[in-house]
Amino acid sequence: MADRRRRGTGTNQEAVRRHNLATLLGHVHRSGGVSRAQLTELMGLNRSTIADLVRELEDLEVVTQSTPEAGTIQRVGAGRPSIDVKPAADSVFVLAAELGVDTMDVARVGLGGQPLDRMSATTPTNRDPDALVDTLVDMLRAMLKTADDRSRLVGIGMAVPGVVTDSAGLVRFAPNLGWTDVALTSVLESRIGRRVPVHIGNDAELGALAEHTRGAARHMNNLIYMSCDVGVGGGVIVAGAPMMGASGYAGEIGHQVFNPNGQTCRCGNVGCWETEIGSHAVAEAVGCPSSEMHRLAEYLQPDSEPPARLRALGHSLGLGLGGLVNVFNPEMIILGGVLRWVFPLVREDVLEALSEWALAAPAEQAQIVLPALGGDSSIIGAAELGFTDVLHDPVEVLAASTGATATIIGA
């Protein structure tokens, strides 16, 4: 009996230590750099414990310590400057991918959220999952070649424009890719040469995660991020946590019925909001041919007078936003994708329509803004997803990781 108690105590102490290591690494990762004095406050632990935890993470080569530069020193006592702790971005990285209807982007992102390299490719015309994964694997392999031999790949994160079950790696429905029940994680894992944790998520939800963690909504607890390309999705954060729904399918705001007499949506319904404000609707409004969709931003120059059809689209956008304000009472709505080009041109039309439809009280609180991360919100969110495992238990994940040159993908 006494022997079992001793083993139990040891296990609990080890669990607490690893939990504290993970918590501390999370603070360093999300802040991009924090002093040991601040970590002491954030974690409620004494200075010597924080110093020991930092030293252990330094031994794992995931953080670095340095004396702060003059003028930035924080003191924890008379004459004692607090040491800065920063993520070792070149030592630990993830590969992040954003799968789009027309283009695919891949980035190598270091610990701390710093993009190190990236590349783009055209999505296979038939959008067949196997063909798409073939292209994706080639891109992932190219990204690995840009990494230092000793740096370690700890995860892969992917943003997908569809309804996703991350726990099973299943894309239930991605109408603009033409997918139904695609086991994307399994397809990818069958092609990689070693076990690397793979996580997938909805592009709008990951955009919300990135803007909440690193972007425009860092100090907000209630927000909506709108991802707008061919399709329109929403990532919703309520009280600081993502609103996922019963099975993780919440946020398909583009498929709310907006115009019952409108166009048929790719989902099969008629009059979905995304048929009114998605990229194809924007292209039609500004006279951009379908063959030149890659140049759509050039048709949306901020110094040009918006055509009447674009102003009408702005009105439709504002009415839909008014509905979101009434339902979710957000502090902020962030307009991503093509909307970040549209909104500055039709701001007055959008806000006028929003005020027409939204109730006065929630409308007073809602800011309508552009993403601080520009067009990178979803891929940075995918990177955050890729870091999930190492931030949960850095000791276990790093013990199993190897240098980039030993990681063979798609061989």
Written description of the protein model:
There is one protein chain. The protein has helices at 2-31, 36-43, 47-59, 129-144, 184-189, 203-214, 273-277, 279-286, 308-328, 339-357, 360-365, 377-386, 388-392, 394-400; strands at 34-35, 63-66, 75-77, 80-81, 84-87, 92-99, 103-110, 114-122, 152-160, 163-165, 170-174, 179-182, 198-202, 223-228, 232-238, 241-242, 332-335, 367-369. Residues 1-10 and 72-78 have low confidence and may be disordered. The protein is globular. It contains 14 helices and 18 strands. It has 3 domains: 2-87, Winged helix-like DNA-binding domain superfamily/Winged helix DNA-binding domain (Arc Repressor Mutant, subunit A); 92-205 and 377-406, ATPase, nucleotide binding domain (Nucleotidyltransferase, domain 5, 2-Layer Sandwich); 217-371, ATPase, nucleotide binding domain (Nucleotidyltransferase, domain 5), CATH 3.30.420.40. 40% of the residues lie in helices and 21% in strands. Strands 8-7-6-9-13 form a 5-stranded mixed beta sheet, sandwiched between helices. The termini are far apart. The chain is of the alpha+beta class and 411 residues long. Helix 2 packs across helix 3 and helix 8 packs antiparallel against helix 9.
